[in-house]
Amino acid sequence: MATRIANRQARQARDFDLSDDPTNQTHDTKSPTAASRATVGTTPGSERAAVERIIANQKSFVVRIYARIRFLILRQIFLQEIGQYLPREGRILDLGCGFGLFSLYFAIDAPTRKVTGVDLDADRIGAAEECAAKLGVDNVHYTTSNVLAWKGSGQFDAIFMLDLIHHLPKDEVANFLARVAELVAPNGVLLLKDVSNRPAYKRLFTLALDRLMVGSEPIHYWDPVELTALVEQLGFTVKRHTINDFLPYPHILYVCSRVSV
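The structure assignment produced for this chain is given below.
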């Protein structure tokens, strides 16, 4: 048994490599240690169970397939990477939440969080609310709104966006982030998980899949240095790290804080 567990952990370590972003070392951060990850969130078994419950309680077969794909792309070890920066209690905002998969996940992960999900698609918001009701999760709330216009109510201890920025019109991102910055509490954190514009083969792989999902809608993959500078102008300290997974996505996580992270 011990040998099987060790082999499984070794395979997982090979498949998932969080490395420093070489483009600008002053903004980079190293991967958290295994020990620090172990103190964050639920146990591995309960994490997997939460994901399976969220998938199983989606309203249709098609949405269940979509949910499984999203949780494959953003696997649990990646969710742990994001989740370590989310406070265990307080107000959390998920902008561009879609079907509410990850707002639900982080609400289940810490019942003392008060999570709000916002998305333009009323059908997806309806599905998210239905799934939350089925699961009996009462610390998550959903709102139908265009994130570019949503003003919110009060400030949040953490705001996260997962693969949203590259779907927004490039010329509107600066103003959008400025409005979002006003919603971040003084000691809060803004987490931007997006995709980099390099290396080229990973960008092209991601673009092909995005085109299948959104057709001809505008897509802009930001240069990490450019997006970092944009956020820093809003008064944040930005640390970023790239994530190399078994799928060729150019994942990058920006940890934006007004205090040391």
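Interim note for the steering committee: The chain has one domain: 2-257. The beta strands are 17-20, 90-95, 113-119, 140-144, 156-162, 184-195, 237-244, 251-257.
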